[in-house]
Amino acid sequence: MKITVDFEECLKDSPRFRATIEEVEGDVCELESKLDKLVKLCIGMIDAGKAYNAANKQFVNGIRELAQQSTKDEVIESSLTKFAESLQEMINYHTILFDQAQRSIKTQLQTFVKDDIRKFKEAKKQFDKVSEEKEAALIKNAQAPRNKQHEVEEATNILTATRKCFRHIVLDYVLQINVLQSKRRSEILKSMLSFMYAHLTFFHQGYDLFSELQPLMKQLGGQLDQLVVDAAKEKRDMEQKHSTIQQKDFSNDDTKLEYNVDADNGIAMEGYLFKRASNAFKTWNRRWFSIQNNQLVYQKKFKDNPTVVVEDLRLCTVKHCEDIERRFCFEVVSPTKSCMMQADSEKLRQAWIKAVQNSIATAFRNKGDDGEKLDRKSSTSTGSLDSGGEPKERSLKGESALQKVLAIPGNTCCCDCGQPDPRWASINLGITLCIQCSGIHRSLGVHFSKVRSLTLDTWEPELLKLMCELGNGVINQIYEARREELGARKPQPGDPRHEVEAYIKAKYVDRRFVRRPSDEELRNKVVSLSKQEKRLSSSSEHLPPRPPPPTPKLRPGSNVSGQSVKSADSGIQNSADGSREMLATTPSNNSLADGDVAESPPMPMPATLPPPSPCKEMVFYEPKEYSPGLQLYWASCARSLPDMAEALAHGAEVNWVNTDEDKRTPLIMAVQGGSLVTCEFLLQNAANVNQQDAQGRGPLHHATMLGHTGQVCLFLKRGANQNAADIDEKTPLTIAVEAANADIVTLLRLAKMNEEMREAEGPYSQSGDETYQDIFQDFTQMASNDPDKLNRYQQYDPQRP
């Protein structure tokens, strides 16, 4: 530390010391003035920022209101809603920035001025006072007469005491000056550095937020270009149509302008007529009439429900009315009542009378046929994905991802700092995070943590279930097992960012607080998991059998490669049109997906197919050594996500290969276990979806062999290679065809068709086929939300001819 005022020089009380003191006092006075000004400017900036945030919030509310008003246009509504949510997040970031400015600039510098500079001023007062007393003592000592001994002694004693007091106070004053000069540097730089870090976090979070929004903005940009072209074309067409109609002569055919015929919607005639009321005054009112579905109805306004005048036209007659004063009238008479109406011209009256007569004749002629058509239509409108006519479930209907994830105990506060009401999550760890900790997690890299918003992002059902299977409590038991033992302090809300960042890196990157198991503990864990897997497998054998679904039969002479497989009940067409009819009434044959209970046993098959053979039973062999990779291997099969997370925390390789069991990986064992969530957890933690075992079979092969449709759907979405062949030169499609597995054949063919369509569209195509997207979404929703609809009815038997 550089000494501003020398301690020995101050004892001399030299002119040099006095000059230095005067210079320091002037500097401190100026410093106080500058700091006061800076604090006031900071307060003004914060107030202006709050006013900006308030105005910005009103603007965002205006965007939301516009989105709500545009419910009929899905593109505008969804885009504006997404933009409003993103802008709201930016407002939140601004609020955090201003709060940090208040803490780092206003509060910290005000404390420095009030405490340290105030102590300096108090020390200065004491110094000035003792200096005056010393000066007076020196003068009195000099003036004491030589012949008056008692005055000399008194003056000498006073001078000695005053000098002693001066030395004590001047040393304290110099110490206060030196400390203040040193502390001013650290306090000012600390305050400004904290403020600059707050800006860094603000811009980093904003960049991350708009990076996630960029694909949507690019997509909208492309759509806007096309919309501009379409709008210009529509404008030209409308101008041409306007010109054509304007030039057309309707003088001889004005009747057509007065009524409409919409045969496609079952409307035989519609238009305005005057109707005579049935009240005592017999008033006439203009109403919009229409003849539809063998009924005569009218409306006062378009939004009103139609009022039925005649229930069944077969019971009516229509006639001219010439015996009343008004012109162009006609009457529709039924057994219970009559309705008097008036057209605007004779031509219109004749047209209405003819339309009613034709409708009466048509009603008599088509009554029986319509009933048969209606029955036949209702009996055939079924689908494999919507059995019972139930509506398809879409993601997060009625309950948001935020509500579901926060419902898990421990998830209502940030996993790392305890900040309540978190809005972010790490999907590969299964934890919830506050906005500050989410930014730190992003900086770790996706190999440590994958951050996603609970409010802005779309959540797949299998990913949402993964979050609900783990949670902050489970993960903290693993990653903070030794925290108290090591005496490490867990961050609290409001702690400086650098402290929280250091803790998070120690927790997830260095894994400093993870308790390493002993060899005996690891052995017991692996053996327990292998036994748990056996219990789950054995318990599944005693599940009550479900009635077998309709079974597809191979057409005689069909190709084994599956190029002409059809099912009388499934309705799967081997065409490349991508139609949704490919799924009509397909028999379900896949696994329970992610219900996390054992799969039901194979159902008995009709005589048309050979009996199924069981899959290779999982047998536990005593390994050469126990490792976290082996724990992950058996935990994946036993469907135990906490044990899988623990194994990864202990350093297990997610693509660990068991050389004692045909080089199988944890992902293949997760397929054997039958849980969609365990597969999702491994994939989120960088498991290789195409890694093969000793038989050349990857996870997609095994899922197809076991009939796990939900897993097949998941692997195809994650880029599994469906063209890979095992050592028997069999692809997943070949296996699915031989097992007559209609659902999996559908998924594989659709995925292949979608891939071919994207290749044909060009290397930069991202869209793919909409039917492919819709069908895969249907399977994903069903696998997670209604796995009972996907019941496996046969496993693949590799020995079957």
UniProtKB/TrEMBL annotation:
PH domain binds phospholipids including phosphatidic acid, phosphatidylinositol 3-phosphate, phosphatidylinositol 3,5-bisphosphate (PIP2) and phosphatidylinositol 3,4,5-trisphosphate (PIP3). May mediate protein binding to PIP2 or PIP3 containing membranes. The BAR domain mediates homodimerization, it can neither bind membrane nor impart curvature, but instead requires the neighboring PH domain to achieve these functions. Keywords: ANK repeat, Cell membrane, Coiled coil, Endosome, GTPase activation, Membrane, Metal-binding, Repeat, Zinc, Zinc-finger. This is Arf-GAP with coiled-coil, ANK repeat and PH domain-containing protein. Residues 379-388 have a biased composition (Low complexity). ANK repeats lie at residues 662-694, 695-727. It comes from Parambassis ranga. Residues 399-521 form the Arf-GAP domain. The lineage of its organism: Eukaryota, Metazoa, Chordata, Craniata, Vertebrata. It is found in: Cell membrane; Endosome membrane. The keyword Zinc applies. Residues 367-378 have a biased composition (Basic and acidic residues). One of its GO terms (molecular function) is GTPase activator activity. GAP activity stimulated by phosphatidylinositol 4,5-bisphosphate (PIP2) and phosphatidic acid.
